[in-house]
Design goal:
This protein is α+β, with helices and mostly antiparallel strands. The protein has a single domain, classed as Jelly Rolls. Helices cover 19% and strands 28% of the residues. Strands 1, 2, 3, 4, 5, 6, 7, 8, 9, 10, 11 and 12 form a twelve-stranded antiparallel sheet that branches. The radius of gyration is 17 Å and the shape is globular.
Amino acid sequence: MLSTLFKSNEEYKSSVPFPYTYQDDFLDENYAKQLQSEILHIDSEEWDRYNNPFEQKYTLRNKFNFPPLLKDLFDKFTNDLFIKELSSMVGYELKLDTTRNFWGIHTYGPNDMLDIHVDAGLHPTLGLKKQITLGLYLSHNWKEEYGCKLEIWKGDNCTNDNPKLHYKVDSIAPTFNRLVIFTCNDYAWHGNPEPACCSDNIKRIFITISYLSENFNDLNKKVKAQFIARPNDSLDEEKEKLRSIRADHDKYKEIYRI
């Protein structure tokens, strides 16, 4: 069911501005459509709403009680052979997030978005490095004009006192059955900051799973994501203040949901 024609370690590492890749037609098409249908039929009470200055989306709350096809997909993502192939491409021995903290089922509707950011560097309880994130788009009826593309940016290390973005490198459309993989290093700036332009009955589905490692050489030791403004974004002093607090190891709990 899974296409695992991953790049070689040399090809993957050579991607700029940080290692990333994407691959189309990852799942059998009928299986992928059935997955989409199953997710869209999950009761609305099972979802949490994120609605803050940095992100608007819905996320499935319970990660330990997936419906059958979704459980089957994550069984594949956590299969020993699959992880071995991923590890070979990335260049590190990948480990599972046994807490499922870094697993996610997300949906984006009209005007939903996610600001540019660098992910948390360390798992909040296991203390291991968040090494890579794998994401799968499952919106068969998503059209180009709906936007909400994944943007890849060149920028400074997030551990700098005043990191900055320099320029956008890539813009990846959330095409149905497209798999995205990227390394979660100190300068892996990414997000989908342009709000979705779709109708109420359309959802952009994004399934994510992150894998851990013992690669502690990476400078990013944050336990929460750090958000950043794009060069042409309007100045918002209040939002800048919230960005700073949210990225601070000692202060982020003051605004945990932001």
